[in-house]
Amino acid sequence: MLLTHELGHVVAVPLTGGELAYVNLYPGQIPSTLAGPNPRPAVVLWAGFLSGWLLPLLVAVAVSRWRSMAPFAWGWAGFCWLAGGVYLAFGGLERYADTAQLITLGWPGWPLVPLGLAVAAVGYWRCRRSWPEVVKARATGRGVVVAWLAVAAWVAVQQLLAAKVAVAVQG
C-alpha cells in the first residue's frame, strides 16, 4: 500500500512542474516524498491517494486471470483501499500527513472524512470477502514456495525501484 501511494507522488511532482527533492521508497521504512517548489501541490497530494487505490485495483484485475492468486490479489487491493481510506479520513490529525497538507492548502476537511471512510468501507468489505478464501486455501508445498517467491520478488522490486528513484533524485 505504501509503495503504490508514494509512487503517485513521485510521478505527479515532475508532471505538475515540480522538482523532487527527496524520495524514500525502501522496504521496511516509512516512505516519503519531498518536493521543492511546486505549482500544483494539491494535485501531487491527491495523486498519492488515487494511485494508492487504483494501482492495487489494476493489479488485482490483471492477476485475477490466475484463479489461485485472485483472492490474495483482491485481499491486498482491499487492504490498500482500507488503509488509504483511513489515512485520508484521519490523516488530518497528523501535521505532516497528506490530509493535513490538503487542509492547509484550503481543502475543507469535512468532505475528506466521509470520502475516506467510504473508501475504507469498500476496502474492508473486499478484505472480508477475500482473506477467508486465502486462509481456507489448502497450502501445498508448491503454493507456499510460490507465495514466498512472490513476496521476495515484491521486496526486491521495491528495493531496486527505491535505489533507482534515489539516484534519479540525487542527480
Structure description:
There is one protein chain. 72% of the residues lie in helices and 5% in strands. It is mostly helical. The chain has one domain (2-170). Strands 1-2 form a two-stranded antiparallel sheet. Helix 1 (2-15) crosses helix 2. The longest helix is centred in the C-terminal third of the chain and has 30 residues, at 141-170. The two termini are 27 Å apart. The mean pLDDT is 87.
Q: How many structural domains?
A: 1
What level of helicity do the residues show?
A: over 70%
Strand content: 5-15%
Based on helices, strands and strand pairing, what is the structural class? mainly alpha
What is the radius of gyration computed over CA atoms, rounded to a whole number of angstroms? Answer: 17 Å
Key structural traits:
171 residues, mainly alpha, two-stranded antiparallel sheet, 6 helices, 2 strands, 72% helix, 5% strand, globular, membrane, transmembrane, transmembrane helix, Peptidase family M50
Secondary structure: elements and pairs:
Blueprint: H1 2-15, E1 20-24, E2 32-35, H2 41-63, H3 70-90, H4 98-104, H5 109-136, H6 141-170
Antiparallel strand pairs: 1-2
Helix pairs in contact: 1-2, 2-3, 2-4, 3-5
Could you give a short description of this structure?
Helices cover 72% and strands 5% of the residues. The model has no long low-confidence stretch (mean pLDDT 87).
